[in-house]
Design a protein that fits this description.
Layout: H1 15-39, H2 41-48, H3 54-71, H4 77-108, H5 113-159
Helix pairs in contact: 1-2, 3-4, 4-5
């Protein structure tokens, strides 16, 4: 699986689903602002890392997959859950990139302000790409291990 941009899923959405995403994202931003006002920018900044529309996106992805399968007279519940899980994995990998961005920016902003944003953006990209590559390698290794264990079990049965 390689990362790619696909705009085709935009046509699957309905106007009220985009409204829900916009409202939840705005609400998360307002709550983060209130937290920042009450407890200071350091605490508020932690909450800025909250993927504001993740919850809405995960449920909408699941609904879209279920609807697609239902249109084909199939039960798409499992497929919807899997699609939402893949989106969650992508969000987790993206958060590793956000962490790299935050650390790099915090380290550079006071001493090299002009370089802080480009360097932090590069750190975000590199960390997210590295996290994705590592996740992919781990999945391959686990899949290989599972296949090899199955072969060993089959060989043991034949010898018994």
């Amino acid at each position: 699986m390689t990362p790619k941009v696909s705009l085709s899923s935009l046509k699957d959405g309905r106007w009220h689903e985009y409204l829900i995403r916009f409202a939840l994202g705005g609400l998360a931003t307002v709550i983060t602002g209130l937290i920042s006002n009450a407890f200071g920018p350091a605490v508020g900044g932690v909450f800025l890392a909250l993927p504001a529309i993740f919850c809405a996106s995960a449920t909408l992805i699941e609904k879209h997959e279920i609807r697609r399968k239902r249109d084909e007279q199939m039960n798409g519940r499992r497929r919807g859950q899997q699609a939402a899980a893949v989106d969650a994995a992508g969000a987790a990998l993206g958060s590793i990139g956000m962490l790299a961005f935050a650390v790099c920016f915090a380290l550079l902003v006071t001493s090299h302000a002009a370089l802080a944003m480009p360097a932090a953006s590069l750190a975000w990209f590199a960390a997210a790409l590295l996290a994705w590559w590592g996740w992919r390698q781990l999945r391959r290794a686990l899949r290989y291990r599972h296949v090899m264990a199955g072969r060993a079990t089959a060989r043991a049965r034949r010898q018994a």
